Amino acid sequence: MNPARDFQSLYAGRLWSVMSWPELETFWQRVDPAAPWYLYAVGEPPPASPASAGDTARFLRSVDELLRREHHESYCGIVYADDLLRPSFVKIYDPNHLGSSCGSSRLPPLPGWIMSQVPPMALEAAHPAPAGRRAWWRSLIEGFAGARAG
Predict the structure, then answer these.
(1) How far apart are CA 79 and CA 21, in angstroms?
(2) Element (H, E) at 11
(3) How far apart are the C-alpha atoms of 94 and 111, rounded to whole Å?
(4) Using a CB cutoff of 8 Å and minimum separation of 24, what contacts does 126-133 make?
(5) Number of C-alpha atoms within 13 angstroms, CB side, residue 83?
(6) Are 111 and 93 in contact (CB under 8 A)?
(7) Every domain of the chain and the residues it spans
(8) Among 5, 37, 56, 101, which is most exposed with the fewest C-beta within 10 angstroms?
(9) 13-55 pLDDT per residue, tens
(10) Is the pTM of this model over 0.90?
């Protein structure tokens, strides 16, 4: 198995959008925090190991709060997964750096965060995340119990 190739296949593969806020709430309940989730902020060093179940649950709560607070739309539409019932790969777009997240533009933006059950490969954002967003991520991962890269 080639984890980088698997990650690339998942990243570039077909994903399904979580369109509504009620669907997002249901979707988060289907994400098993005890699964081996790598939690990755694009542009930061990829994690060396999966997060603990507690850290994954904390990330889910924190990112849900951020999306609801900062995505000022009547719909969600910025969370995508390989399987909406049993996800193993999730792209979460940053509400403050969307462009066209559906991939219809020639150069769609990178997601802000990726949850993957295979080790992620480094993705370089065209523009670094704003200082406030990086501070949010760093404060979140500093509370994680597991070892992180970087």
Answers:
(1) 10
(2) helix 3-12
(3) 6
(4) 127/97, 128/43, 129/41, 129/43, 129/94, 129/97, 130/96, 133/94, 133/96
(5) 9
(6) yes
(7) 3-137
(8) 5
(9) 999 999 999 999 999 999 999 999 999 998 889 999 999 999 9
(10) no
